[in-house]
Design goal:
By secondary structure, the chain is α/β, with parallel strands linked by helices. The protein has one domain (10-207): Rossmann fold. Helix content is 30%, strand content 20%. The chain has five helices and nine strands, in the order E-E-H-E-E-E-H-E-H-E-E-H-E-H. A seven-stranded mixed beta sheet has the order 1-3-2-6-7-8-9, with helices on both faces. A hairpin with a 6-residue loop joins strand 4 (57-58) and strand 5 (65-66). The longest helix is centred in the middle third of the chain and has 26 residues, at 75-100. The termini are far apart.
C-alpha cells in the first residue's frame, strides 16, 4: 500500500535544483503548520525541501492539532499514546520521502515540543527514518533504549522551559552517550518554551547537509 500524506501539510520551500535534502518540521500540540513559517524561511536552500507537517488529529485542548492527547497525561500513558500513533508518524515521513525521491540518509526531522517528542521516539524504531533529528524543547517518552545507527541527534532547550524541563534533554543526551551515540545539546539561558533567534541559528547549523554528523 502506498503511504499517504496529509494534504494539509505545508510546503515551505521547494528546491530549484536537484534536491539533496528533505527537512520535515513538526509543530507542538494545539498548534498548526503555519506556526513554523519562520523556520521555513531560514532553512530555505536551493537543494532542499522544507515541509511543515500537520499533526493528524484535532487538539482536544482547543484549537490546533495533535499527535496524541495530553489530557491526563503521565509518564506511563505517554509511552502508550506515542506507541499507538507512531505508525502514522512513520507513514507520514515515508510518504514525503516517496514524493521527493529522497531516502532516510537525505532526511532530517526537526520538531518542537510534541513534534520533538515524536521525532525523538521515531529514532527508537528498528529502521532509521532520518539521518538527522533536531529536538527543540522536547523529550523522549522514556529514556532512550538504543543509540540510533546513522542518525545524528541534536537537542536544543531553554533553561526556563516551564512545560518540558531542559533536564529531559540533558539526561537523554547522557543516556545516548552511554549507549554509544554522540548527540549534541545546546541549553539556552533565559529561554522558556519557545523558539528564538538562537534556536534558529542552531537549527540551521544542525540541519546543514554538509555538516559533520555527530
Amino acid at each position: 500500500m502506498e503511504p499517504m500524506m496529509n494534504t494539509d501539510d505545508l510546503i515551505l520551500h521547494q528546491p530549484s535544483e536537484a534536491a539533496r535534502q528533505l527537512v520535515l518540521l513538526f509543530h507542538g500540540v494545539g498548534a498548526s503548520p503555519e506556526g513554523l513559517l519562520p523556520l521555513g524561511q531560514v532553512l530555505a536552500r536551493s537543494d532542499r525541501w522544507v515541509v511543515s507537517v500537520r499533526s493528524p488529529f484535532p487538539s482536544d485542548m482547543g484549537s490546533g492539532w495533535q499527535w496524541f492527547s495530553v489530557r491526563g497525561i503521565d509518564e506511563a500513558n505517554r509511552v502508550e499514546r506515542i506507541a499507538a500513533v507512531m505508525p502514522r508518524f512513520v507513514q507520514t515521513v515515508k510518504a514525503w520521502q516517496a514524493r521527493t525521491g529522497l531516502d532516510a540518509t537525505a532526511t532530517a526531522l526537526a520538531g518542537f515540543s510534541q513534534g520533538a517528542i515524536m521525532a525523538l521516539e521515531s529514532t527508537q524504531q528498528a529502521v532509521p527514518l532520518a539521518s538527522r533529528v533536531v529536538a527543540m524543547a522536547g523529550r523522549f517518552a522514556e529514556p532512550p533504549r538504543v543509540a540510533p545507527v546513522g542518525t545524528a541527534l541534536h537537542f536544543i532547550h531553554g533553561t526556563q522551559d516551564p512545560v518540558i524541563p531542559a533536564a529531559h534533554s540533558v539526561e537523554a543526551a547522557e543516556r545516548l552517550r552511554a549507549l554509544g551515540a554522540s548527540p549534541t545539546v545546546d541549553v539556552l539561558p533565559g529561554l522558556g518554551h519557545g523558539i528564538d533567534e538562537r534556536v534558529l541559528a542552531l537549527l540551521v547549523r544542525a540541519l546543514a547537509p554538509d555538516a559533520v554528523a555527530a
